[in-house]
Amino acid sequence: MVKVAVLSGLLFSLLTLQARANFFSTNSKLSSRECTKIDLRSDLGEVRDQGNVGWCFANSAADLVTYKLKKRISPVDMAINFYDKMPQMPRTDKLSSASGGNVQGALSYSSAGFCEEDLIASENFQIDKKCLSSAQPELSSIIIFMENLFDKNPMSLSYCQKNIITSLFKNISESDLNQVASLFQKTSLEKISLLKDLNCKKRRISANGIIMRGGYSNDDLIDIDEQLNNSNPISINYNAYFLLKESIQNQMYNHYSNIVGRRKAANSCQYLIRNSWGKDCSIYPSPYNTQCENGNIWVDEDVLRQYIIGIYFLKK
């Protein structure tokens, strides 16, 4: 099922969205635009699953960088950078309660470079069965476990404590773990961020040349078409309530996903939304459950135009 945490914490006016929809409904018709088939999925790998954490913005940003660098970037790394360096984030706040953000911040706060998924996992954690009380946990459970542990400031860690932490941070030493755990003056967020940096310090990929742009025309779909025509995926910030089975008319579900394809269907141009809710298509309401391909959803241009808040892409 789709979880509440997929929503970003930013608030936007529904009146503004409606005004944009009314404006764009009278402009930019299919007949005046190209709708040639484009599909950029092959260079991105499997659709991500953000699980119970509200880090859609980091998953979207990680996919943009993944496409450009041809290396699968960790959204967890980008999210921790965002929350650790964001000026508004109180030092006593918990990473597990942090939800929402934006792709621009995810990129700007990762100026020191990017860590790959094989070093900081975002899903499919491998934990020794003897260290588990039930099924394999999600990211949120591992973060809460680490916060509770680090709040106690242990001088050393047990085998299972180390095993659970290294299921997330795969390249840290035992001495690193014990040293960070015993830093009494640090908050749990600061300790997790320090582990993240120690984990990736020798394999960070440079952020040089990674520049984010926003839409610049009066019609988001014109900007989207231009980027797709140049084989460049696009991050969209949008009201995703129409993708939720339990959605309520005019309710705001602020979310980030990527546009990775386009095709013509009947009298409409459809765009392919690469979501970060996993590959299960049954979570979507009709007709999107049948227009879904392993977590990628085909959406008519009029629907997309109505709910877009902003678009972002990396400079080619």
Describe the structure.
- The chain is α+β, with helices and mostly antiparallel strands and 316 residues long.
- The chain has two domains: 4-57 and 213-314, no CATH class; 120-200, no CATH class.
- It has helices spanning 14-24, 56-69, 75-85, 103-108, 139-151, 159-168, 174-181, 188-200, 220-229, 301-307, and strands at 38-39, 212-214, 234-239, 254-265, 268-274, 292-293, 296-300, 308-314.
- Strands 1, 2, 3, 4, 5, 6, 7 and 8 form an eight-stranded antiparallel β-sheet that branches.
- Strand 4 and strand 5 form a beta hairpin.
- Helix 5 crosses helix 6 (159-168).
- It is elongated.
Structural class, by secondary structure, is alpha+beta
Q: What about the largest sheet?
A: 8 strands, antiparallel
Distance between the termini: 36 Å
**What's the overall average pLDDT, rounded?**
87
Q: How many helices in DSSP terms?
A: 10
Rg calculated over all Cα atoms: 20 Å
Multimerization status: single chain
Strand content: 5-15%
N-to-C SSE series?
A: HEHHHHHHHEHEEEEEHE
What ranges have pLDDT less than 50 throughout 5 or more consecutive residues?
A: 1-32
Percent of residues in helices comes to 25-40%
State the domain count: 2
* Inertia-based shape: elongated
The strand count comes to: 8
Short description:
This protein is an alpha+beta fold.
Keywords summarizing the entry:
316 residues, alpha+beta, 2 domains, eight-stranded antiparallel β-sheet, 33% helix, disordered N terminus
What does the secondary structure layout of this molecule look like, with pairings?
Elements: H1 14-24, E1 38-39, H2 56-69, H3 75-85, H4 103-108, H5 139-151, H6 159-168, H7 174-181, H8 188-200, E2 212-214, H9 220-229, E3 234-239, E4 254-265, E5 268-274, E6 292-293, E7 296-300, H10 301-307, E8 308-314
Antiparallel strand pairs: 1-4, 2-8, 3-4, 3-8, 4-5, 5-7, 6-7
Helix pairs in contact: 2-3, 3-8, 5-6, 5-8, 7-8
